[in-house]
Amino acid sequence: IDVSKIRNFSIVAHVDHGKSTLADRLLEITGVIKPGNENKQVLDKLQVERERGITVKAVTASLNYTYNNEQYLLNLIDTPGHVDFSNEVVRSVRACQGVIFLVDANEGIQAQTVAVHSLAKRNNLVIIPTLNKVDLPRANPENVKAQLKSLFHIEPDTVLSISAKKGWGVPELIEAVISRIPAPTVEVNKPFRASIIDTWHDKFRGIMCLAYIESGSVEVGENVRWRSDSKQHVLKYLALLRPHEEPIKKAVAGQVVMVGCGPKGGGCVGDELLSFESADGIKVASAPAVKHMVYAGIFPSDQSQHTQLSDAIRKLALNDSAVSVTVDSSPALGQGWRVGFLGLLHLDVFTQRLLQEHKAEAILTAPSVPYKIKVKGSKAIKQFKGEEAIITNPLQLPDSQNIEEYYEPFVIGTIITPVEYIGAVTTLCVDRRGTPLPSSAVDDKMTMMQFILPLSEVVIDFHDTLKSLTSGFASFDYQDHGFHPSSLVRMDVLINGLLVEELTTIVHTSRLEYNARKLTTKLKEMIPRQMVQVAIQAVVGGKVLSRETIKAYRKDVTAKLYGGDVTRRKKLLKQQSEGKKKMRSIANIKIPRNTFIDVLKR
Ligand code: GTP
Description:
The chain is an alpha+beta fold. Helix content is 24%, strand content 34%. It binds guanosine-5'-triphosphate (GTP).
């Protein structure tokens, strides 16, 4: 294959602007799938993706296309749209030379449109501005072109118009991909070197990798090694993803291919696969830096399932390099893990995938953002080696007398909203301890607002609240803005005098009373009545800030059966005891497990 005929590109857009639909059309036009109505989001393979209608994983498809009597190989890398999965986007653009920058001609520029545009710019990618959904009666391509011009200085005559749904303009778009995006700049005559951009676990073949070949060529059966060690492996599997696997014998620089070295062959994102004779030194794999926004404890619902859950987490983490996993243990929940996520949706999707793809059920503790502390006197506390420590688990926050300074993570939030909601959005952001930055007009109806906000006020339910305040019209995206000094304390929850570890949180002092009251009243609503009285207390430094009581009550599920049929009675009692297993028991008080997450939502 001739490198000058390869194009590696990706489609980037705000969520729901039509990436997956456009990918379906590209697969049809290039003959991968038969045209027809049943082709809906062919690249969204995971069960979660189909159920939620969102793309979670970036997927690749190598497509053949003939243009001006020449054969081209187009490598499309489909990317997720949601903020939580932006590291998948970052990863896929590393193998690309250009992007189709898709904007809904009806909705116009949204918060994530701004984010993906700056991502493409930062990576020096060729941008093909494309308006989608021009078939909609309310589409206003001229207005959106004006928005693109005013925010990104994109000239209107370079913007393409398509309908991914109807297929309009898609052949012209492919031609633009071929004529505007350059072929990859790679060195075909150097030794083989490929960087790994994704990995997944295959039951029979071991770790499979998606690799971008940066130089040389490789054939099945050749000796290879990882950049991170000197061990020799044999390249066992080599295939194009179309998106189904198409085994090939040889691949060359510029291509994006699937590689695998068998069950013991290894491979991880950020590593490189080299020809065994390569003179390159050993270098530790450098996975792309990921900033975790929320942490939660994951524990088996029963310690007997520890091995199974451990296995499931390991396999899933291999396919989701954005999570960080460290071992954790708790007196109440036993051995488990502290897992870092990019956001709450990511956490949700991770636990859903654990269940669906690995049949592993888990208990989750309340999510927390990472805080930073500066310890008084350099070696005051044993577990912290330096003067500064990142606290990912509120239970590990040392006593306040040992802390010199607290820091909490902040973000720059970008909100694009219709002008009539400026007041409501400002109130929301100020209420969430936000500081406004200058805003700019998108057009005469829409404005782009920016705020510096504490991450803890954003991760849990900010997006949902913003959507409901603005009838769904505002969009939101955020970027890391580092740690800022803050005033924080640890708040505990006691149930009948016993600490509920899952509910310990770190709280901003201005929020203490509010959070304490909210937490106890919510818990009162959520904890079912029990045989004994339940006292719920929110406590800071030994002082009770808020207290609620649930009166005792005896639930007799068999009462209405008048002592009749014995088997029926037994069955009901059995159901009741199975229900109890889904509960977490503290001082004989049963708490439904979903309480730990739900209780934090406002
Ligand atoms: P994520 O994968 O979650 O980021 O979404 P996406 O950008 O891939 O969007 P998707 O392709 O799932 O499309 C979102 C919705 O817009 C779907 O209901 C599509 O049917 C619809 N849609 C996509 N393209 C068009 C189009 O050209 N015209 C019309 N009328 N609807 C479209």
